[in-house]
Amino acid sequence: MGGAVEKEKRAGLTVFQLKVLAIASMAADHIGAVLYTDEIWLRYAGRLAFPIFCFLLVEGYCHTRDVRKYMGRLGLFALISEYPFDLAFHHRLWTLEKQNVFFTLFIGLGMLWLLDKEKDIVIRAGIVLLAMWAAEILHTDYGFRGILLIAVFQMAGERKTVQYIGGAAWNFLWESRIQNAGALAVIPIALYNGKKGRSMKYFFYLFYPVHLIILYLLAYKC
């Protein structure tokens, strides 16, 4: 009986499995954006990635032992990934036109840290607005809307229904209907079982710049 209870507790998706789903979705999106621009279904499949990454960022913040190291990793890979990002999407070694998604997550994590220290609702709203402004000024991927989604997941807290509804509704704030498909990301998020699963932390960090370099080489050098 105890074994059955334990099995029930472990049902669902772990952090590791959610990350695998997110990077698979992201890879499909980028393949569609760089290599097969007429295959619009790849872009739709890619809409699951960012909401899952934002959810995992909030979960990661809640469970991290050292937020400064967490921010340091995100900041480091934001810098490392910028050249591959610019090459893959802008065909240039460096441009300020748009910054990669690690910058968005870095700003979002800083926002979470500041929100955790403040209880005043007016100041908390100001922190969110400041983070959104920073994302827009730096032209980070997903911009102010990306920061807003992180804030939605964080402020919903343990209210799962609010988290799911807010996370789904966010995907309809865009002019492009493609992002609407991202509402489906709440399904795997709802299946999260609170378990970490396998630990391949740096694989997921490295996957982003490495796959962008590969896409660039395939598209423009082969």
Q: How confident overall, as mean pLDDT?
A: 92
Number of discrete helical segments:
11
Strand content: under 5%
Task: List the uncertain runs.
Answer: 1-8
* Rg over CA atoms: 18 Å
Class inferred from helices and paired strands = mainly alpha
Number of DSSP E strands: 0
What profile does the largest beta sheet have? none
Proportion in helices: over 70%
Measured distance between first and last alpha carbons:
58 Å
* Helix and strand element order: HHHHHHHHHHH
Shape: globular
Report on this model:
By secondary structure, the chain is mostly helical. Helix content is 70%, strand content 0%. The protein contains 11 helices and no strands. α4 packs parallel to α6, α5 runs antiparallel to α6 and α8 packs antiparallel against α9. The protein is globular and about 55 Å long. The N terminus is likely disordered.
